[in-house]
Amino acid sequence: MSLGAVCVTIVDNAGPVLHRKNAMLVCNLVIFIASLMTGFVVGSAFATIILIAVFCFIFSMIGVYGARAGSIGLAGLFVMVLNFTHRSGAEAIILNALYILCGGVWYMLLSLSLYSFRPYKVTQQALGDLIETIGAYVLLRTAFYDRNPDYDGIYINLLEKQAEINDKQNLIRELLYKSRDIVKESTNTGRVTLLIFIEINDLFERIMSLQLHHKVFHQYFENSNLLLVFRNFLLHISEQLNETGIALKSGKAYPVNRRLDDELAGVKKEFEDFRSKQISAENIEGFIELRTLLNACEDFVSRIQTVQQYTSYDIKNIKKDHRVQNYDQFVSHQDIDAKVFLDNFNWKSNTFRHALRVAAATTTGFLISEFFPFGHGYWIMLTIIVILKPAYSITKSRNRDRLLGTLAGAAIGVLILLLVKDKHLMIGFMIVLMVLAYSFMRTRYLLFVTLMTPYILILLYILNPLHFKDLILDRVIDTAIGSVIALLANLLFSPEWTYRQFAEYLQQMLDANKNYFIDVTSFFTGTAVTINQYKLSRKNAYVALANISDALNRMMSEPKSKQMHVAEYHELVVLNYMMSTHIATLATIALGKTKPNTDPEYQPVVQAVTANLDLAMKELKTAGDHFSSINKDIQKTLNSGLQKTPAQISSDVSGTAKERLEEPAAGSMSESIESKNSEVNVSEDSKKSFGQVNGFIDSKKSDGRVNESIDSKKSDGQVNEPGDSKKSFGQVNESIDAKKSELEGRLAGEGLRKLNQRMTDMVEIRKKELAGGMDEGHLHPTLAGVKLINDQFNFIWKISEDLLKTLRA
After folding, report:
1. For residue 371, with 0-12 CB atoms within 10 Å meaning exposed, 13-18 middle and 19 or more buried, which class applies?
2. How far apart, in whole angstroms, are the C-alpha atoms of residue 332 and residue 319?
3. What confidence tier does 130 reach under pLDDT thresholds 50, 70, 90?
4. How crowded is residue 776: how many other Cβ atoms within 10 Å of its Cβ?
5. Are the CB atoms for 636 and 643 separated by under 8 Å?
6. What does each C-alpha distance from 565 to 312, 485, 554, 571, 622 come to in angstroms?
7. Which of 307, 381, 533, 615 is a plausible cystine mate for 529, CB 3.0–4.6 Å?
8. What distance in Å separates the CA atoms of residue 769 and residue 756, rounded to the nearest whole number?
9. pLDDT computed for residue 561 by the predictor
10. Per-residue model confidence as pLDDT tens digits over 747-756
């Protein structure tokens, strides 16, 4: 019975209760049939080999229907292997199968009954876990404000943590959006749970949007304590998120922490005091960036306190939240259709090859256990089944964890048995080890094996203390043999190397970022989409980013000879991450309390960025084998010095964007602004809107000398056209694409020049005000916001150019 219960726990993953119930029902049927058939073939080596091959293939192939279906297959294989231990008569075989079935049914009823008592508990625990992980993400970002930060390490850590957050978000979407009671928001708890998830997703986007000029911070403020003040405040934000997540998981209300308000007030005072003493025309850009960071901190506090308020679940008369509708769009659906199985029944399918690999490896393990005198040969097959995964990197990681865990666990087991002689204490240790082992089964495989091994050894010692030394030796040898077979099978039996799929991941990432960019910038161009559409494109962009980051990590775990073009891939992943963060910054501005005014000057930039991304995707389609057809050694790439670090990529983007920003600022422009400074007369209302600020700047250029300056620079060739650097690709449409690319580039260049010129004018005016002793000038309330918007469009344009350039290289 215990075997049946344990097998059903494998499929009882977090998810909608209907999916869990159906999976457990199917699992009970599978383990019953597997137990019966295995029992009847034991004793015939030929029949056993056929059964192993067929079961391993079928139970591995059903993984095409998703992870939960794959867990059902794994449970069936466990029962098959563990029933090879003894031969029995027909009556005993049937009775054994019924016992296993009863154990599985008992666990299913227990799990469903616990859900009926506390239907929201699993979702709340998953939400709490997500909030804690976002707190860890904020903690990683605090490293930007340390002295001499390691930018490369920070970016790598952020990418890995973002992928982890995405996995947790997808799990909660499954729990929330596929549960009818929550989606219908029929109870106060359901409404609040949904609101917490919406709020925490918006908070994470706001945190991601902190793609600021950290090098500018250190350039201007390295010798002051101001950066440490912001760092310490972000540490408090991280702690508050962590504590809020723990409270939510434990089912306790976390009172709104007003201490954050006091700490935020302290940060503001530190900032204002430092600003009043140190601000000058030379460091004004640094203070603009710090003002942006301060505004973000205020938003963090507000959003965290909202989530903390929701944890009490004592909010009455909550109206339906309209920020997310049509929930089905946010979750994936897997149809159980025979066509899916048949479509994967070919050599191109990775699942098909994996199923054959498992069948061949497990059959080999069985043959070795039959021909060599091992006391527990089924441990070889069990090791193979547990270790072998479709991805080489996961198999390699599991192999290492299995071997190390077995050795460490065996040592722990021997130590306990040498020191403890009382059987009651042994049983106590065994129970503790068992509970701890299953606690880490889904999250820390190395710990799971390390704790499970002494638990098994103690159990077997209690049952048969005379052959204990043989048991330890068998455990270690069988695990080692199974690990070697699994590793060789995954290495030699047509593995799916990540570099072959990377172009597909990259294409999905480019398409997702393009849609995300279009939806967000629609709020600036006057063609705003629905909030639901924007959130859907945001979710798709984050999922694609997590997938491509995970793919890069997998590639780095593969053999050196299979790490194709990792330098280029690394740069592309970082560029896409930076683009997502800058788009997120635009989103937080567009959906903030003060809505930005629409401006037609943004439209050519938007069109040019989307054109660049379309060309990049076309490049991938027409040259899909560009990366995979050239067998290039990674070590040669690394030694050639061509690989850019994340910090270098960020620096290149920031540097080029800054050059674009400063291009229009010519001597005649400054003279024009200075000569007209005494004529400025701005009303109070002109401080509050972007459009009115434009009018204010235009009034300072009434003599036309600024435009003449730009035109003269263009005629001299001093102003670069962004489109000039574009190169055509594709032999069929080469001429058309080249002309289209050049036109888009010229339009974007014109749009960026106008935006940058306007921004430069504002900065110059502000510098003159500061030089004249005017601390609170006319542009002070709007300068930071306008500069933030302008910078994002410059950065995103530059990133899109770099993406296309890297793909064409």
Report:
1. exposed
2. 27
3. very high
4. 7
5. no
6. 51, 29, 14, 10, 18
7. 533
8. 20
9. 74
10. 555 666 666 6
Question: Does 335 or 614 have the greater pLDDT score?
Answer: 614
Distance in angstroms (rounded) separating the CA atoms of residues 319 and 408: 55
**Do residues 4 and 31 lie in contact, with contact meaning Cβ atoms separated by under 8 Å?**
yes
CA distance 81 to 35: 9
Q: Which two tokens stand for residue 17?
A: 């209760």
Is the C-alpha dihedral spanning 572, 577, 580, 582 positive or negative?
negative
Return d(Cα 536, Cα 151) in angstroms, integer. 31
Take residue 23 and report the two structure tokens written for it. 């999976």
Residue 328 burial (CB count, 10 A): 10
Give the residue carrying structure tokens 């080692």.
480
Q: Which two tokens stand for residue 295?
A: 């505004």
For the ranges 427-431, 511-515, 609-613, 757-761, the lowest mean pLDDT is seen at: 757-761
Sequence-separated (6 or more) residues with CB below 8 Å from residue 590: 520, 523, 524, 596
- Cα 496 to Cα 71, 349, 490, 548, 800: the distances in Å are 21, 9, 9, 16, 30
- Using the structure block, give the residue that is written with the tokens 């009926």: 116
Picking from 516, 521, 649, the residue whose alpha carbon sits closest to that of residue 590 is 521
Q: How many residues does the chain have?
A: 809
Chain-centre distance for alpha carbon 150: 21
- Angle between helix axes 780-808 and 602-622 (nearest 10 degrees) is 20
Q: Which amino acid is at 517?
A: F
In whole angstroms, how far apart are CA 448 and each of 252, 402, 476?
Answer: 29, 9, 16
Provide the pLDDT confidence category of residue 246 given band limits of 50, 70 and 90.
very high
Is residue 564 within 8 A of residue 629, CB to CB? The reply is no
What is the token pair recorded at 474? 């068998």
Instruction: Tell me how many degrees the CA angle 145-150-153 measures, rounded to the nearest 5.
Output: 115
What gap in Å lies between CA 128 and CA 250, rounded to an integer? Answer: 9
Query: What secondary structure letter does DSSP report for 615?
Result: H
Tokens of 493: 């039996």
The token pair at 150 is 């390691």
> For the residues 677-695, what does the mean pLDDT come to?
37
pLDDT at 758 over 70: no
Question: Average pLDDT of 199-207?
Answer: 88
Structure tokens of 427?
């049983």
Percent of the chain exceeding pLDDT 70 equals 74
Closest CA to 550 of 532, 587, 586, 577: 577
Is the pLDDT score of 388 beyond 80?
yes
Provide long-range contacts, Cβ within 8 A and 24+ apart, for 366-375: 366/48, 366/49, 366/52, 367/49, 368/481, 368/485, 369/478, 370/45, 374/474, 374/477, 374/478, 375/467, 375/470, 375/471, 375/474
Six-digit token pair at 755? 């935006």
The C-alpha R_g of the chain, in whole angstroms, comes to 31
What pLDDT sits at residue 487? 85
Of 613, 583, 577, 575, residue with least CA distance to 521: 583
Confidence (pTM): 0.70
Helices (H), 12-44: 17-41
Kindly state the DSSP code that residue 117 receives in the 8-state scheme.
H
Cβ-in-10-Å burial (0-12, 13-18, 19+) of 499 comes to buried
- The angle, 0 to 180 degrees and rounded to 10, between the axes of the packed helices 734-771 and 667-676 is 40
Distances (CA, A) of 450 to 75, 387, 453, 668, 690: 21, 15, 6, 73, 62
> What's the rounded mean pLDDT across residues 426-443?
86
Question: Is 599 within 8 Å of 524 (Cβ atoms)?
Answer: yes
* Closest CA relative to residue 637, chosen from 732, 565, 552: 565
Could you give the residue ranges of the DSSP H alpha helices within 420-525? 423-439, 445-463, 468-492, 502-525
